[in-house]
Amino acid sequence: MHHLRALMDLLSYVEEHHFYRSRCINLIASENITSGLVRKLLSTDLGHRYAIGFLYTRMYRGCRYVDLIEALTGYLLRSLFRAEHVNYVPISGTLANLIVVNALTKPGDSIMALSVMDGGHSSFRECSLVHGVSMVPLPFDQEAYNVDVDGAEKLIRRVKPKIVLLGASDILFPHPVRELMPVVKEEGGILAYDAAHVLGLIAGGRFQDPLREGADIVTGSTHKTFFGPQGGIILCKRDYSEAIDHSAWQLVNNHHINRVAALAVTTCEMQAFGASYADQVTKNAKRLAEALYDKGVKVICSDKNFTESHQVIIDVGRGRANGISNILEEANIIVNPMPMPWDRDEGEASGIRLGVQEVTRLGMKEDCMDEIAHLIADIVLSRRSPSEVRYSTESLADNYQKVYFCFDTDEEAYRYFRVEYLMKELKMQMQL
Ligand SMILES: Cc1ncc(COP(=O)(O)O)c(C=O)c1O
Fold it and tell me: By residue range, what is the domain housing residue 260?
């Protein structure tokens, strides 16, 4: 009978996770929560099926509705992003980057992107290595907290990379797409932009729009500021569509069609509510940064108004970010430590990255950002114990338990997985 015990344990762990997260303030910049409708689509029969091949020419039969769903998804995404082509096959942002590198480079080529210490994502380097391509780090200007345009121009002329990939995991300000486009083109390269973090802000029209600024390709995750199911996406000019679509099928055999349908729903939510959502996200980020700064926490880029994205970065001192993130966790404030460009290595992280997109989706506005800043400052400046702060965190979180910027705003954000009834039914069937 121990497998039944394990089953009960497992179900209650999932329920406890949901209750625990309903009592936390989640500030992980790469996460979000989905609407009830998106969750429902994720649990449909579509999640059991394959649709290998291209639209209307599948290897497996039985795809008549899958084709309709995917044709609609493609149309919705192309309209939202005003893109000539979209590929929604990658099941993560990392895979989207790998598909692009695989499609458009040969072993021995080089690409340029930011290094991890300067805010780039580890997938930039790993995707290149997997394909036998070398990654040359883009120069970074610590003062501007952005790509160093002059340095990058010189390096692009020297290295002549196949792909220059802008975008980052730590992204406070728009990246220099317009500025670098001419030199990339003169040297025969492709300008790509990894919008994993800012895709939802782009959709809402509240951040730079890389395609409008001339980028050839945009990759991204569909679950960070874009509040959809976990997955990846590639938007591109028509010239690259064939190579990218082929590469996608080579690398992703099984693209999770339930996720595609859920992504289509999120795209409708973005069409309807994206602008007001992105507006509130950027207002909240600025307010959180200002409030933290006013309370004495060192927020980076104070001379540049802190941020134009969903992120705020605080500097807690060399080697202290891990420890402080743990104490914040004890206070039910969930964050991640980040190595900063001025740290010696990743183990000495001094930065903590805060993202306001999930709390915004729960309906929080500027007044809540003041409260959150207060709680964080109490921990970072050691003014109150984590257990005292946790009490305040839980009271604040308790008032924000619904999902907004969607069509079904009555849905519980976290407390929807109830084992009690499930257990009763299971017990009857299994005569426990
Ligand atoms: C800039 C950037 N690109 C790619 C990724 C990878 O995204 P995913 O987790 O969807 O694979 C991340 C993850 O946070 C990221 O920050």
Answer: 39-268
